[in-house]
Amino acid sequence: MHRKSPAPLLRDAALGLDSAWLEIVDRYAPLVFAVCRRIGVRDADAEDVSSSVWLRLMTNLDRIREPEALPGWLRTVTQRECLRLLRSRQREIPTDPALFHDVVAESEFDAGLIGRELRDAVRDVVATLPGRDRRLLSLLFGTPAKSYREISAILDIPIGSIGPTRARCLAKARRTLAAA
Questions:
Q1: 145 to each of 137, 150, 155, how far by Cα in Å?
Q2: Is residue 114 part of a domain?
Q3: Nearest Cα to 18, choosing from 134, 156, 120, 176?
């Protein structure tokens, strides 16, 4: 079987042909995930990196000067996204529950009350989101959480758009929650 070169695929995807975009993602997703694995990014983090890579490509479809170098472009963008993720993880402060044992014991009642209030507020905010956003968040954060592949099939959206859509939904929910 003869595969299209990246040039017409990029051109067709830039023109809005879903089949071209799907072929690009199908063809190069293994490359993106291989780069993630090589760097040590796995599972949901690799899915997030993948979503960022596909979003970056989608916004730059008409700016790729050398379409035949697309695999190298994807490799470079994936490496940068993985490193960005790993750098952001280094800034997180891990907590050891044992360090907070006394504090938790003293404020157990308050924590339960605050937790219930926060859950209720989050539930109210999620209820204000459009139906598709609510459905996406319930699939992502429900029990059991669905994989990006399952969500893609259920919602009939490309895997590469799940992460960016999730980010937009959560940002909107955070803004609404902060305003409340």
A1: 10, 10, 14
A2: yes
A3: 156
Phi, psi of 72, deg, nearest 5: -65, -40
Tokens of 152: 């893609």
Do you know the residue count of the chain? 180
CA 25 to chain centre: 15
Residue matched to tokens 């490799």: 75
Measured CA distances, 97 to 93, 100, 101, 105, 115 (Å) = 13, 5, 6, 11, 17
The model's pLDDT over 122-153, given as tens digits with 9 standing for 90+, comes to: 677 778 888 888 888 788 877 787 888 888 99
Last residue of a domain, one of 66, 90, 114: 90
Domain that holds residue 51: 6-90
The domain that holds 45 is classified in CATH as: 1.10.1740.10
Per-residue DSSP letter, 91: T
Work out how many domains the chain is built from and give that number.
2
What is the model's pLDDT at position 106?
Answer: 47
Q: What is the pLDDT of residues 51-73, one digit of tens each?
A: 999 999 999 988 888 999 999 99
Is residue 119 domain-shared with residue 77, that is, in the same domain?
A: no
